[in-house]
């Protein structure tokens, strides 16, 4: 069977909403990164899916690369595909809800990684459509993440 | 901001699980198409997402092109991304749960479109990973579709 050629589809990415649990079993907040490259600002960690890789493999790899964390995937949360969501090109992102323990370290495309309690998310500093994603998530989220 | 170049991500597609409701308000089954091109067999209707198009726009367009139906999206169901799911190339599919009224007509890449009651789905004739998708869906599905 020959491949379908000459097709241009959007670029595929993943983003992770990482809920951090501390040593005492309390959820302390969500991981945000300070971006090293434009658009400059805060964002959920994420990146491009490689050809030949599943979206689950991609999110585990990207979370490790950008934050040093070994995340556990809880579920696929939602797919965001507005062509205007990334100013550089049309990217479609599969957003995952994840959990992890430990302290994130900003690496790779992330200058810094921080853990922010849900009630203190600086929405005005979020780039791309990550404000929308986090608002959708907070409306939808399981009550265990207080 | 310059676009990120030289990146190869998987091809993005959408598939629709269309629940058909008849004139009396009864759900009669799910739409399957008989494929015109290899791999030959039965499949959920679906197709490639255009660059610049949302996944929601893509699924409404593709369902219309392949079945003639104007579908209503109920929700994003799940993203399937196993590199082996399509024998031609790596495609990642966002699968939607939809509803529609009317009789599907096979068009475009579909030789024929049929409505199959859930208990009569011929799983052995489904191509790609559509058997897995429909089994996942039936395990997960809302009880209103009997």
From TrEMBL, chains A, B:
Keywords: Hydrolase. Residues 9-140 form the Nudix hydrolase domain. One of its GO terms (molecular function) is hydrolase activity. Belongs to the Nudix hydrolase family. This is 8-oxo-dGTP diphosphatase. It comes from Desulfurobacterium atlanticum.
